[in-house]
């Protein structure tokens, strides 16, 4: 049993990844912001792969669930890089809300 799983059971909440700062996402400039800038600002990506054109795609993801699923928050950032490792394009999304409710 993993330590994170045990901690989630004991505290009643769980999270994965690091929270994505929206101000930093808005500061990303295609053709200017580099892969190294992204790692500095958001940490290492949780996944990365090369597409059929040889361009790197990296993904950052954050997920949080409160005790008993009462609230959730998730953020996702996908970035496509040019061959010179500058940002070509990006997609960012965030969502949240309440999960299961007890009673009426």
Description:
The structure is a single chain. By secondary structure, this protein is of the alpha+beta class. The protein is built from three helices and five strands; from the N terminus they run H-E-H-H-E-E-E-E. The protein has helices at residues 3-11, 22-26, 35-42, and strands at residues 14-16, 47-50, 56-65, 71-81, 87-98. Strands 1, 2, 3, 4 and 5 form a five-stranded antiparallel β-sheet that branches. Strand 3 (56-65) and strand 4 form a beta hairpin.
Q: What keyword list fits this structure?
A:
single chain, alpha+beta, 5-stranded antiparallel sheet, 3 helices, 5 strands, 38% strand, disordered C terminus
One letter per element, helices H and strands E, the order comes to: HEHHEEEE
Distance between the termini: 35 Å
Largest sheet: 5 strands, antiparallel
Percent of residues in beta strands? 35-45%
SSE diagram, text form:
Layout (H helix, E strand, L loop, with lengths): L2 H9 L2 E3 L5 H5 L8 H8 L4 E4 L5 E10 L5 E11 L5 E12 L6
Antiparallel strand pairs: 1-3, 2-3, 3-4, 4-5
């Amino acid at each position: 049993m993993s330590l994170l799983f045990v901690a989630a059971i004991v505290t009643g909440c769980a999270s994965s990844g690091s929270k994505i700062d929206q101000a930093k996402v808005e500061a990303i400039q295609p053709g200017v912001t580099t892969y190294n800038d992204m790692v500095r600002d958001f940490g290492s990506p949780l996944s990365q792969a090369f597409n059929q054109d040889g361009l790197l795609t990296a993904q950052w993801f954050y997920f949080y669930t409160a005790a008993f699923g009462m609230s959730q928050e998730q953020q996702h950032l996908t970035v496509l890089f040019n061959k010179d490792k500058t940002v070509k394009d990006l997609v960012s999304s965030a969502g949240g809300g309440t999960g299961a409710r007890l009673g009426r």
